[in-house]
């Protein structure tokens, strides 16, 4: 992206302005460059927005006793979700009642929903 902008800057910084056969300046290349930047922006931002919306919906659906996979690789059951504090408490071990507190951003996926979806597909 930086190379493209550098190329455009060098192109416009030249002393000669490209001329068409009619004698006026040719604005085809700048228009194509601007259109290309807009297309790249939309191609890159739309999938990211979709993924963020999917993740927000998943976090909103979190409830007690859901099995979750954290981004650190820890698997546990949801004990408490505190959306106002942006925290989640998961129970790691039922025998010792071990609990850990994580940021909601550390939730990678909900495991129980995936198992239900795969059984529905069968």
Radius of gyration: 26 Å
Biggest sheet strand order reads 4-3-2-1-5
What is the CATH architecture annotation of the largest domain?
Answer: Roll
Q: Which blocks of ≥5 consecutive residues have pLDDT under 50?
A: none
Number of domains: 2
Mean pLDDT, nearest integer?
A: 81
Helix/strand-derived category reads alpha+beta
Description:
The chain is an alpha+beta fold and 122 residues long. It has 2 domains: 2-58; 63-121, SH3 type barrels (Roll). Helices cover 46% and strands 24% of the residues. Strands 4-3-2-1-5 form a 5-stranded antiparallel β-sheet. A hairpin with a 4-residue loop joins strand 1 and strand 2. The protein is rod-shaped, with a radius of gyration of 26 Å. The model has no long low-confidence stretch (mean pLDDT 81).
Describe, in short, the structure shown.
46% of the residues lie in helices and 24% in strands. The chain is α+β, with helices and mostly antiparallel strands.
Sequence-ordered SSE layout with sheet pairings:
Elements lengths: L1 H12 L14 H33 L6 E4 L4 E8 L4 E7 L4 E6 L3 E4 H11 L1
Antiparallel strand pairs: 1-2, 1-5, 2-3, 3-4
Keywords:
SH3 type barrels; 3 helices; 5 strands
